[in-house]
Design goal:
Layout lengths: L17 E10 L4 H15 L5 E8 L6 E9 L3 H9 L3 H7 E9 L4 H7 L4 E4 L7 H4 L4 H8 L6 H4 L1
Parallel strand pairs: 4-5
Antiparallel strand pairs: 1-3, 1-4, 2-3
């Protein structure tokens, strides 16, 4: 693999303490209702995770069988989410939705990669950027409060 034509500064301890995961899912149309019910249960449990900053499902407006999950965690919250919160739902979830692609952004640990590799994760390391809403002092409770007011398209909320 060739090196970049420019140097990337060595990341510091404080440079990236968050992991973002974006899942691309395919859902059979006859499974959408059951998936809606299940993800409402999952979101209620995730709401209790203090280090999960964003967790949301979105459906393609014209092809609602294409669903994405956007998740933002403090790095130390990824494994507890997978192993504790999501684990009871895994079998049902994977019976309703097929993971087509997973992108993981941030500096993942070997343990996180071992878990996400099962889903065919593509890892993207940070180059440069900012994250104001995570670092400006908003608590995760405030972020959850804001996120809970998001209105999803009526076709997906049935």
């Amino acid at each position: 693999m060739e090196a970049w034509p420019f140097s990337i500064p060595r990341r510091t301890e404080r440079s990236m303490k968050h992991i973002t995961c974006v899942f691309h899912l395919a859902v059979e149309p006859d499974h959408l209702g059951e998936l809606r019910t299940l993800i409402n249960e999952i979101v209620e449990d995730v709401r209790q995770e203090t280090s999960t900053l964003v967790y949301g499902y979105s459906a393609n407006a014209t092809h609602e069988s294409e669903v994405h999950i956007v998740e933002l965690y403090q790095t130390d919250a990824v494994l507890p989410h997978i192993n504790e919160t999501f684990s009871p739902y895994t079998e049902r979830f994977l019976g309703l939705a097929q993971i087509k692609k997973l992108y993981a952004y941030g500096e993942t640990t070997a343990d996180i990669r071992n878990k996400l590799d099962d889903f065919g994760a593509v890892y993207l390391a940070p180059l440069v950027g900012i994250s104001k809403y995570v670092t400006n002092g908003l608590s995760s409770r405030r972020i959850h409060s804001v996120a809970s007011r998001v209105v999803y398209p009526a076709t997906f909320r049935r």
